[in-house]
Amino acid sequence: MTVKNCYEQMGGSYEEILSRLMTDDRVKKFLFKFLNGDSFYQLCSAMEEKNYEEAFKAVHTLKGVSANMAFTDLTQACNKLTENLRGGQADNETEGYFEEIKKSYELVKKTIEDLQAQEG
Amino acid sequence: MNEEILVVDDEELNRDLLQAILEREYRVDVAWNGELALEKLREKEGNYAALLLDLQMPKMDGFAVLDEMKELGYIDKIPILIISGENAVKIEDRCFKMGVSDFIHKPFEPMLIHRRVRNMVDLYFYKNTLEQKVEKQTNTLKEQYDLLQVQAEKLGQMNNKIIDILGTVVEYRDLESGDHINRVKGYTEILAKHAMQMYPEYGLTEERINMIVAASPLHDIGKIAIPDGILLKPGRLTEEEFECMKTHTIKGCELLKSIRGIWDDDYCSTSYDICRHHHEKYDGRGYPDGLKGEEIPLSAQLVSIADVYDALVSKRVYKSAFAMDEAFTMIINGECGVFSPKLLECFKHAKPEFEELAASGYTEQPESAD
Predict the structure, then answer these.
(1) ipTM above 0.90, yes or no
(2) Which of A16, A78, B233, B353 sits a CA distance of 20 to 30 A from A42?
(3) Buried-state track A77-108, b at ≥16 Cβ within 10 A, e below 16
């Protein structure tokens, strides 16, 4: 699997990340770093505790990182929840947006892990 | 490559991305919270070429960093670019108000980041260099001003010395009045200082007193034009001789008029007044103009008392010295002509100082006259 395949599979923009980081090697390095980030887990625990202010901060951070990594789908999903939680309160759409992020994040995570396994 | 940039973001991936983007052009230092950022800023005394700052961070957020930087005086020194995912107008406006220079939006666009950072780094480099230059030039100007002040003071001292020399020239012809000029300076100063304290309506100031004291040696400059036969005659002068003697006031001030252009106007008019009017009397019975009361310039009134007192307590070709007590009484009683009642009050108060000076018989120039 190439980095390009990887981006196609997770719904990201390979052209964009390449313009930012120039080489596949560097893209890979940053993909693996992405797995170390904890904003997704912070988002999960904040959602569980119904602490929507913290959830907003976490999803806001995750949105920034995703955008920087050119994870188009995940960024869009984060964007919806960010706007939804901006007032610090949840509504009946919140949970749906959160599920969308979870799905998208799991896909990104699995794809990167596959790439990592392949690299050995 | 001396330019160093500080990147402050709690998200490692963002920091590393910015570092990857900027490290070709700058040295990149990083901090992952506000506290650490401030520590680094303090350590380098704000000497970073630029600061890239995230707003939302644990342990002191971006706004708190900005507040603290303002306190430390770093805000105007370092360009600050906010790393922002927000497009919220209010937040950007608040940042600009706090002294932020520009924004870097997510997702990062390397080309734009390069340009924005370069713009600000260059702008602040020129701004800071310009400020340093202005400061340096201001200092140079200040130094030159100080130097001028010193030279002006030297010139003033030189001027006073020349005045003294002019007065001394006359004094030497006069043979007997050894340190008359220095003593008159001393008496004039003592009397003027009492007048300044006792009668504020005279409007005397330290500067004005210094001017009067410095000009006082010229009071008898006109004696240079009086023939030896009269000037040096022992015993009483005939009426005719006395008329000639009286002309030293007019001759003196004419002489001073002819050297105008060397001294400044205040100096000229003060020395002119003293020279012309130091023999006027308060009741109008003096010479050469018969001025009355406060028509007589204060400078001339002051020097007049000083001159008369010194003449009384000194031995002259035509008389021996009076005792100090006697001289004092003679002046107070109007035996040497009428003086201003106010100045006589001052003279009474100044009696011990006059007597101290008269007794010291000093030959040195009084320091305080400078």
Answers:
(1) no
(2) A16
(3) bbbbbbebbeeeebeeebeebbebbeebbebb
